[in-house]
Amino acid sequence: MPQISKEQRLKRILFILSVIGPGLVTATADNDASGIATYAMVGAMFGYKMLWGLFLITISLAVIQEMAARMGVVTGKGLSDLIREHFGVKMTFFAMITLLIANLTTTIGEFAGIAASLEIFGVSKYISVPLTAIFVWYIINKGSYKKTEKFFLALMVIYISYIISGFLAKPEWKEVFKNTFVPSFSFNSSFILIFIAMIGTTITPWMQFYLQSSVVDKGVDVKNLKYQRWDVFLGAFWTDFIAFFIIVATAATLHKHGIVIETAEDAAKALQPFAGKYASALFAVGLFGASLLGAHILPLSTAYAVTEAFGLENGLNKKMREAPVFYGLILLFIVIGAGVILLPNIPLIKLMIIAQEINGILLPIILIYMLKLTNDKEIMGEYVNSRTFNIIAWITVVFIIILTLILLVEPFLGVLK
């Protein structure tokens, strides 16, 4: 076997780093304001008991994200584009309407996270939200895909604050590892509903649309598919590694002392008496970084999906005059997302719950589309799904459908109260 020189090894490493980005950014952005709030509630309400679920969800997330990335690399088309071509305009229109509603409410949640995190440090939302909105628009409008992606990757460093918070909380590591690999389930209504929320916030429809579009926008070639796969797998591990420490931090402090929370802001404030001011501040810093990344990604994801669905010009490498609808949608989402937060007495928690419920309804449909597309040899050629991937993906779909049905039927039956 021929030896590789240091120069060749360095070139290979640099090349791999040039491919890495879409999978890592997409998965990390999923730990947004509502995601952090959900994981914090998981830890605060049930301690370490759901960590095993997060471990299994990570495997499903990696498989589903790999499917989206592989479709983008092999076909050179976004998910909306493929859905329109193979399932018709009506189904595409339905998917886009539901995605618009879910993404808009989630975008509002991102700006809520920005406002809440900086209010902890004494900055009014009437200053933080407008300035952040202008900054988000500037970054998206002025950068090429490469420049914007570098900014997104830089933001990911902020998530390390959650790892530090987890250690500062001084958890019982023996219990942590036990619950990570030994399943425990409860048929308690709140346990089931929070478990649904944890799945819904970890695997979302917008992620699939954004990831596939960003892979296409980046121009990843099929010969580099294996590197793109590692990007996706790394992203799935990293995002849930952060989620793991959010759950651990809140379980070791808030659950232990019976503290009830509804938002990530509540969690940041509640941590201080038990884990110290540094853990609390780090949690708030993480919330700001996560919300800022989400405030960029959600409008982008929506613009990619809608313009692809209707065959319009899109991409960060195009100027506004070349893709007016693409940039117009991004600006509209930023303005509405920031504007709603500036209104008094907005029920943010309800908005986030509505967004997650819509995501829960839409996700199985999107996953079924993806499974059909990735198993079609005319579309994918030799890159169709393996049997293992199909089994994991279908188990995920069926499980989400069952949990979503429970979520939808619950208000009418009054079983889960």
Automatic annotation (TrEMBL):
Superkingdom as given in the UniProt entry: Bacteria
One example GO MF annotation: cadmium ion transmembrane transporter activity
Location of the protein in the cell: Membrane
Membrane-traversing stretches: 39-64, 93-114, 120-139, 151-169, 189-211, 232-254, 281-304, 325-343, 349-371, 391-409
This protein's UniProt keywords: Membrane, Transmembrane, Transmembrane helix, Transport
GO BP annotation list: iron ion transmembrane transport
InterPro entries from the UniProt entry: NRAMP_fam
A cellular component term, taken from the record's GO annotations: plasma membrane
Main localization (coarse): membrane
Membrane topology reported for the UniProt record: Multi-pass membrane protein
NCBIfam families: Nramp_1
Protein name from the UniProt record: Natural resistance-associated macrophage protein
The organism of origin for this protein: Caldicellulosiruptor saccharolyticus (strain ATCC 43494 / DSM 8903 / Tp8T 6331)
